[in-house]
Amino acid sequence: MAGNGGDAHQDKARRFRDAALPHLDDVYTLARYLLRDTADAEDAVQECYLRALRYFDTFRGTEIKPWLFAILRNICRGEFVRRSRVTLAMDDTTDDAEDAAPLWQEEQASPETEILRQRDAETIRRLVSELPDPFREAIVLREINDLSYSEIADVVGVPIGTVMSRLARARSMLRKAWVAEEGLPT
Amino acid sequence: MTCAETEIMLHALLDGELDAGHARDAEAHLEGCPRCGAQFRAYREMQQAMLAAQLRYTAPMSLRRRIDMTLPSAPQRTSSRRSVLKGFVMGTALSTALAASLVIAVIRTDQDQRVLGDVTSAHVRSLQGDHLTDVQTSDQHTVKPWFNGKVDVAPPVVDLTAQGFTLLGGRLDYIDGRAVASIVYRRRTHVINLFVAQGAASEDHGPRLETMQGFNIERWSAQGLEFFAISDINAEELREFVEKFEAAFQPANRT
User: Fold this and answer.
1) Which residues of B touch A142 (CB under 8 A)?
2) How far apart are CA A163 and CA A151, in angstroms?
3) What percent of chain B has pLDDT over 90?
């Protein structure tokens, strides 16, 4: 009888491993981009998996990846923010500022339509890392972690409209930085 | 649709998030408006460049081990008994000869574990650094001859791009002390390594799913060859890969 509890526990651990471990690289990738520090990212990912196992019983969805991301994001916002020099201004008021300055007005004389030169992964990673927090988060979840808009909205806890405007903003900023990186005349 | 609306909508179009009606509206505007059209192409170009570059990070082995050790693990006995049961459930429609070979496979579990360990290590290695492919091309007719004289098999190389698995190229690797061919595919941002070695078993056996260090591995044999497909994509998609590969590899046997 005593063994049964153990078996159930073992069974849960096994199901958790099978479901969650295949996403380790994804979770680590998000942590690297959110925290911009290798050691902090590793600590956050480990904490994420421990918490996820603890709350695995409450996981009811079909897609575990966004669920893991939401846990990771909470960890990144919490203790890791306080500990490191990283500030994740997720409850940003910047959105209002973005809305106040419509994107399409600034595009007139911008180099957005220049041909992009191929960059190596290291350069692109750095350019993405230099984006301000809410925009970096949005574009990493979309382009690198392959989440849909509604999944991003769930993970970040904002309406889909906000996801869309942040993505538009993120791409605009990234594209400008990318072109500037090439030293092309604007 | 106005320029201001399109400014936001073109991203949703780029991401495949628009329903048919809105997509038509957005496309109509992009066609008629040179400025928005140019912008759309510019962002699409950037999106493709980001997809082509490997922007994901691979969790270091030390972290993988750290997490592996902190999670309670199921005892080995339980998991191997499970895989046997799974094998027999899958094999109800299969011949007794095949069932017998499953038993042999179970007895040889230690060696299997070692081989799967090798497969996993080779997969992880291939994702680290810049050595995913030795021959990089999406042309199956370039990849196949490249293996000539390098491995003791002629691995089947099939292009599954149309089925959603992009052929990236080929690589020489080592599994269980032998040189084997690895054919590299990509599903979205995920890499699939398909290892092909000379088969030890005389009987073909269908795909069996294994999990090691969080990676899904499908292992099967056909026409004297042993196949291992490994990736971090979910089990359903990996099975889909195996089915698509098999269908292209031996269409005659599948009908």
Assistant:
1) 15
2) 10
3) 23
pLDDT one-digit tens code per residue, B100-141: 454 444 444 566 777 888 898 889 888 876 678 888 777 888
Domain that holds residue A36: 2-83
Residue from B59, B75, B53 nearest A68 by CA: B59
Helix (H) or strand (E) holding A110: none
Residues in chain B with CB shorter than 8 Å from the CB of A124 are 49-50, 53, 55
- How far is the alpha carbon of A109 from chain B, nearest alpha carbon, in Å? 11
Residues 61-90 of A with CB under 8 A from B: none
Render pLDDT for A17-73 as a digit per residue (tens, 0 to 9).
888 998 999 999 999 999 998 999 999 999 999 999 988 988 887 789 999 999 999
Query: Mean pLDDT across chain A, nearest whole number?
Result: 79
Best mutation target, A7, A10, A25, A72, to test chain B (most B CBs within 10 A): A25
Query: CA dist B247 to B79, B160, B222, B224, B231, Å?
Result: 30, 10, 12, 17, 20
Tell me, yes or no, whether A72 and A151 share the same domain.
Answer: no
Strands of the B166-175 sheet, one edge to the other: B135-136, B166-175, B178-187, B190-198, B225-231, B215-222, B205-212
Residues A98 and A161 in one domain: yes
Whether the per-residue pLDDT at A8 is higher than 70: the answer is yes
* End residue of a domain, out of A51, A83, A115: A83
Total structural domains within chain A: 2
Rounded distance between C-alpha atoms, residue A40 and residue A150, angstroms: 28
CB contact under 8 A, A25 and B57: yes
**A177/A98 same-domain check:** yes
Is ipTM over 0.85? Answer: no
Q: How far does the CA of residue A24 sit from the closest CA of chain B (Å)?
A: 7
What's at B251, amino acid-wise?
P
Report the CATH number that the domain containing residue A117 is assigned in CATH: 1.10.10.10
CA atoms within 13 A on the CB side of A176: 13
Domain boundaries of chain B, sorted by first residue:
3-52, 106-254
Whether A115 sits inside 8 A of B39 (CB atoms) is no
Q: What CATH architecture is B106-254?
A: 2-Layer Sandwich (3.30)
Return residues 98-157 of A near B (CB < 8 Å).
102-104, 107, 112-116, 118-121, 124-125, 128, 142-144, 146, 148-149
Provide the pLDDT for residue B105.
Answer: 43
Whether A17 sits inside 8 A of B214 (CB atoms) is: yes
- Can you list the residues of chain B whose pLDDT is less than 70? 73-111, 129-130, 200-203, 251-255
pLDDT of residue B193: 94
In a domain, A33, yes or no: yes
Residues A98 and A74 in one domain: no
